[in-house]
Amino acid sequence: EVKLPIDAIKVSDRKRKDMGDLTGLQLSISKYGIINPLTIDRDGRLIAGERRLLCARALVHVEVPVVFLDECDSLAHREIELEENICRKDMNDLEKADSIREIHELKRSKYAKSGQGVTGGWTVEDTANSIGMSRQQTTTYLKVADASPKVRELLQKAGVSAAYKEYLYEREKELEVELVKALIAQPKTETSANYI
Question: pTM of the entire structure?
Answer without folding.
Answer: 0.59
